[in-house]
Amino acid sequence: MKLCVRGTTYEGTAVDLRHRPVDGGAVAAAVRGERWLPAVDAPPAPLVYHYCGHARPGMGLRTKTALAAAARSRGHETAYDDEITALRERLAALDRSEPELPSARDPVDGERLAELRETVAAARGRLQAREAVGAETTAVEQAVREATRTLSERETERTAAEESRRQRRERARGYRDRRAEHRRLADRLANRRRDARRELVATVSDRFATALDALPGPTPSDPFDAPAVPAALAVLRLARTDAPVVLETDRFRSPAAAADRLGAPVVRC
Questions:
Q1: Radius of gyration for the chain, computed over Cα atoms and rounded to the nearest angstrom
Q2: How far is Cα 27 from Cα 32, in angstroms, rounded to an integer?
Q3: Based on the number of CB atoms within 10 Å of its own CB, is 41 exposed (0-12), middle (13-18) or buried (19 or more)?
Q4: What would the pLDDT profile of 210-264 be if each residue is shown by its tens digit?
Q5: Beta-sheet strand order (sheet of 39-41)
Q6: Is 45 left (phi over 0), alpha (psi -120 to 50) or beta?
Q7: How would residue 103 be classed by pLDDT, with cut points 50, 70 and 90?
Q8: Are the beta carbons of 196 and 68 closer than 8 angstroms?
């Protein structure tokens, strides 16, 4: 581990920054790669680090979730891992974007179409009658053409409106179906993750209790009743992390003792 704070570079497995005006949260964020300063040259932080990598008074901790992450850092697997991977892939492949719906069109009234058809029929009847007696038909022919054109336009508009409504219904239905499928898969994935966490916790729970007993200070009869700081330290003790842990606690006599007990590099702030 190499750490540069305000122009001073620190190296080694145990760094004591209690005499420097540096925030432990800033150091932990730099280790996680969330900020540039202070500059940290160290292995990347595993998932368990995001739960326990900054041990401090007042911290919160989901002990079982952190413990499952610690088990993962040790390479433990569960019977649910393949299904979890498959569900993640299905969720990632599911298109959740809202569909682009065709513009809504005003429907053409059926009664209006019926009136136009009657107009066309009447105009054609007048044309046939005039043709039968050899009368002038120019004006009537023009009326037939105009009535027929108007009817054709309205029928085209009606067809387009019906098609638009059909497409809007189908795309909206498909979107609702995809959302429902996403919820179903997400619920199933959450259940499998809980199952996996339960199995992982059961795998390392005895080691967690042993790690908690090995820490300085009192320990509760039920390891899962331990306060956040000692629980986090016990999780770190059984986890595998080469990323430097940031401590703001006096549970150890020195940063070097903390690094030795936790089996990880330590930055004491």
A1: 37
A2: 9
A3: exposed
A4: 999 988 878 888 999 999 999 999 999 999 999 999 999 988 999 999 999 999 9
A5: 8-11, 2-5, 39-41
A6: beta
A7: low
A8: yes
